[in-house]
Specification:
This protein is mainly alpha-helical and about 525 residues long. It has helices spanning about 5-10, 15-65, 65-70, 80, 85-105, 110-115, 150-190, 195-205, 210-235, 255-260, 270-305, 310-320, 325-335, 340-350, 355-360, 370-395, 400-410, 415-440, 445-450, 475-485, 490-510, 515-520; strands at about 130-135, 145. Strands 1-2 form a two-stranded antiparallel sheet. Helix 5 (about 85-105) packs antiparallel against helix 7 (about 150-190), helix 11 (about 270-305) packs across helix 16 and helix 20 runs antiparallel to helix 21. It is globular and about 90 Å long.
Length: about 525
């Protein structure tokens, strides 16, 4: 496709310019894949070069180092102690001691859990012996008690921590070897090596960012990274109600769960997943942009000159978010039920079209179309106030001389909105739009409290141990198959969680690289 220059593009009508942009988008897709492949290849090459340089540096350090440096390859921190860095040397040595004690000396330590976990060996149970009732060996009457066995969840969690500990050990080993090489270079140049006192001063001065980030990194690792990785590992097991990890150990099944979710044949879950994912994306688009543009319109109308009692209108709108959603959404759900107050009023006042009468008499929530429309409308009701408050602050910061200049040039109200207000709003609120879209993809409250995922979708087979509804999102389906299903398919919930993560990540990366907030940061500086 021939790419137009700026002058040729400006000569196009709005419709032709739109068609040109659409064609340009689709024609650029192959180029994106080519760039992606080149980027991956460049990343692989860079990683290879980094690994080569690291091994070369380790070899030079060992060859040129003195006896203390050479021994530090086995005894952490010895090189630092030799060069007078007492605090660093002691910390490195304590870490090595803690690693050895945890991995080799403690009876149920790291290596023991790794061995019991049989990491990613298909068909192997996580743990060797399940718990169960048996005869108490200390009771002369032979009473039965629960005899503890290997708990799959505990074994897997501690095995994961042990693997992370091993990775940390390798990184620390490389770090202290690098510290030895740095000490060698500083000594060779005749400069003074930093002491422990200098290190403490540095952590409160030029390295203060490391001091502040260390607790955060530890917290993120403990409460975000480890649980996330653990959840992803569960996707490769058969962890469910029948294999609870206590009385019956769960085992590794490889990619069988992923095959089941992408199986569109008889008994597969592919049809259910694709159907729910389609509605999930539609819901996220409507829920995000309807709130965004309507909330912006409300803010513009309230802020317009001549509008009186502005505080009152803002207060009325904010009241919808002041009441907890658990209360307001459940109440609204009952209002639109077949026997609800609004339902009876609509019916008595003949406000229901004859074509919808039969469906409505069964209730709005029993008809797939009306249920989806009602979900989007109610979401607008609870979402507009947030956007209105945010947009109000942004609108007040748009320079008024831009509007005055536009009016002098004869711009209409619509042109002022499309050329001034909307670009400014999109620039400032681009990251909010992205986070709002991601939040709506996982909007559990609105769907579950209003429709419960219903009405039942009879065209999709019974999947995940639960009935699937027309308004179910992936997040509500995930909840149902774990909390409301007798089979409690935690493994399948983990698979869905991984796929949700991939969908959200891909969409987020695309949007993040398109929004003007990240591409033209200086435009509204």
């Amino acid at each position: 496709m021939k790419k137009l220059n700026d002058l040729e593009y400006l000569k196009l009508s709005k419709f032709k310019a739109f068609l040109y942009n659409v064609k340009l988008f689709f024609c650029s897709i192959p180029g994106w894949f080519v760039k992606l492949g080149l980027s991956i290849w460049a990343l692989i090459k860079n990683c290879a070069f980094v690994i080569r340089d690291e091994f070369a540096d380790i070899g030079r350090t060992f060859i040129k180092g003195n006896w203390a440096v050479k021994l530090s390859f086995l005894i952490f921190g010895l090189g630092n102690l030799y060069y007078g860095q007492i605090m660093r040397g002691i910390l490195f040595l304590l870490f090595e001691i803690a690693f050895i004690v945890y991995m080799f000396i403690i009876p149920d330590g790291g290596l023991h859990d790794i061995k019991l976990a049989h990491l990613f060996q298909n068909g192997k149970t996580i743990g060797d012996k399940a718990g169960g009732y048996g005869v108490d060996p200390n009771d002369k009457y032979g009473a039965e008690i629960w005899l503890e066995g290997d708990e799959s969840t505990r074994v897997l969690l501690w095995a994961l921590i042990a693997v992370i500990f091993i990775i940390a050990f390798i990184y620390t080993w490389r770090l202290q070897v690098k510290q030895c090489r740095i000490c060698m270079d500083i000594t060779a140049s005749g400069k003074k090596i930093k002491s422990g006192k200098d290190d403490l001063k540095s952590l409160l001065d030029d390295q203060f960012h490391k001091t502040l980030l260390t607790p955060s990194i530890i917290g993120i690792t403990a409460f975000t990274i480890i649980p996330t990785v653990f959840m992803m590992i569960i996707a490769f097991t058969n962890f469910d109600a029948a294999h609870d990890g206590y009385g019956t150990l769960y085992s590794w099944v490889g990619f069988e769960n992923f095959k089941e979710l992408t199986n569109f044949g008889q008994g597969g879950m592919g049809a259910a997943f694709s159907s729910i994912l389609g509605w999930n994306l539609i819901w996220a688009v409507f829920a995000t942009f309807s709130n965004y543009f309507l909330g912006m319109m409300v803010a513009i109308m309230i802020n317009k000159k001549g509008i009186k009692i502005k505080k009152f209108w803002r207060t009325v709108l904010v009241m919808t978010i002041a009441i907890p959603q658990f209360v307001s959404l459940l109440y609204v759900s009952k209002l639109f039920a077949a026997d609800g107050i609004l339902g009876r009023l609509f019916l008595n006042w003949n406000l229901i079209p004859q074509s919808m009468l039969d469906a409505y008499q069964r209730g709005f929530w029993e008809n797939p179309t009306t249920a989806k429309i009602l979900l989007i409308v109610i979401n607008i009701w609870i979402g507009i106030p947030y956007v209105m408050l945010m947009a109000t602050g942004i609108l007040m910061n748009i320079p008024q001389d831009l509007y005055e200049s536009a009016r002098v040039d004869g711009a209409s109200g619509v042109q002022q909105f499309t050329k001034i207000t909307l670009p400014y709003m999109l620039f400032v609120t681009g990251p909010y739009l992205l986070t709002s879209f991601v939040g709506n993809l996982n909007n559990f409250n609105v769907i579950y409290l209003l429709s419960g995922g219903g009405p039942p979708n009879t065209s999709i087979s019974y999947a995940g141990g639960v009935d699937i509804g027309h308004t179910d999102l992936l997040i509500t389906w995930l909840f149902k198959m774990t909390a409301e299903s007798a089979s409690s398919q935690y493994y399948m919930a983990s698979v869905i969680g991984i796929l949700m993560f991939l969908v959200v990540s891909i969409l987020s990366l695309i949007v993040y690289n398109v929004i003007p907030s990240t591409k033209n940061e200086e435009d509204f500086g």
